[in-house]
Amino acid sequence: MRHQCSITIAALGLAAVLAFPAGAQQAPGASSSRPVVQPYPEGVRPERVTLSRMMTPITATFENQPLQDVMDYIARVTGAELEVFWLDQRTGTGLDPEALVSISVERTPAITMLERVLAKVQDDFGGGNNWQMAEWGAMQVGPTSRLNRFNRVEIYDINDLLLVLPEYPEVPQIDLQQALQSGQGGGGQSPFGGDEGDNDLDERPIEERAEDIISLIEDLVEPDHWIENQRASIRYFKGTIIVRAPDYVHRGIVGYTYWPTRRLTAVIEGRRYVTMGVDTGASTIDGFGQQPVSAVVGGRIIRSGPGGGG
Question: Of 42, 75, 178, 248, which alpha carbon lies 20 to 30 A from 127's?
Fold first, then answer.
């Protein structure tokens, strides 16, 4: 008996329904079943193009289909360049192209579908499966043991996180009457009153504060990767942290500056990374305006603005 596999495609505003017998599909690795990678537009970062294509919403149902067929389907629908690390004799590790996958998604971003598929074929050893971006624009997919071979060193400035700012829980009160008397030669009592509050600063050495940040990163981003520096290492040096790690670990620390955020927020809830800072690259100045202020000059209250006398 031949099992039927029905797939509904919804991508880039197009909809179609395909039905074909599982036994009639191309064998894994057959040249005619290979997806065609769409060319990268000129002047655009290839990694951003790939991520944008992986935001394509997909509606599909697979029942006990080979993993390679599912991966080829994702690549074919999105046009993204996927570099899948398959199991081979040379490395002894990789994704099994014959592993059977059952999954059903409805208007789900392709990248989310990919992550769900990787979770389904994950074994109980070897660190699991993941994805990361290659510097030439491809999305590398496979076991972390294979992804870990693509290490790079990044230096992150954390001086803003090490800066300790004083806190003033109680705002001083200004006695204008006292200020006027002082301006007219009255007593020398300060016009400021009220409790200024506790202003104790964190006076620990900066190296200790840096270790707190490092510990936080190690606890939140791939915790098992930092043990004895086997897969990733992190060091503090003069206001920076130096991280040697594969790309998916760097993504966990700062994310991707080229991530297509507009489409991401439209189809995905939450974020795929932990960030320690605020991205001000998208900040804009909406305009300038005047705000009237008051001051005590020579025992008189001077107000700025029309008719304010100053």
Answer: 75
How many CA atoms does the CB half-sphere of 217 hold within 13 Å? 31
The one-letter code for the residue type at 247 is D
Are 66 and 88 part of one and the same domain? yes
- Rounded Cα distance, 295 and 191, in Å: 13
Q: Environment class of residue 221 by beta-carbon count within 10 Å: exposed (0-12), middle (13-18) or buried (19+)?
A: buried
Question: Is 197 part of any domain?
Answer: no
Q: Which residue range is the domain that position 102 belongs to?
A: 4-147
Query: Smallest Cα–Cα separation from 26: which of 61, 65, 63?
Result: 65
For 201, half-sphere exposure in the C-beta direction (CA atoms, 13 angstrom radius) is 9
Alpha-carbon span 164 to 205, nearest angstrom: 11
Measure the CA–CA gap between 1 and 113, rounded to whole angstroms: 29
Q: What are phi and psi of 134, to 5 degrees?
A: -85, 155
